[in-house]
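Section 5.1 Outputs to date
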Amino acid sequence: MATKLEGMLVELGLELDESTLKILSILQKQKNVPEEVIAKRLKMRINDARKLLYKLYERRLAVYEKKSDPKKKWWYIYYWSLDKDRIQELFLEYRRKQIEKKKEELEAELKYAFECKNCHAKYSYEEALETEFTCPACGSVLEEAAATATAKKLRKEIEDMELALQAEETKLAPKQAKAKPKQKAAKPSKAKPKKTKK
């Protein structure tokens, strides 16, 4: 069964293989998971698990922390977690794409400017003009189409989705401001300007 995150990634075109999705599922439930634990849970060699983890890292979906192994000198243990900030960015991108799809649906619905009251067929302005505003199916006179219930529903959905997106972006704004380090202003140079020869 696909999780919400997996569905979102597929929608964004970031399709991942089954093993990588299993790793993603593990990282969703727990953070700072050693790669040995991931390999054991998936019943695979550690090198294979590491390759999949790096695939997630390359797509900026996972991050790791490297710590020295207390049992073995010169060895390191990698602890993996989901990159929550990147996931949040992807979520917002996903929301924007959903809104665009709804707007396209609305545009398609509004494209039909005329309808036949007799057989309920819909026509664009160009189609109605070509048939001299008569229905090619039944011969009735075409009338200007009123805003349909579908169009009203789509407008409401778009409005709700845009408000939800705006709320998410507002909630994220303080986090993103904290994450960006403040740049120090350049100090004026104390060196004296060089004299040029005339």
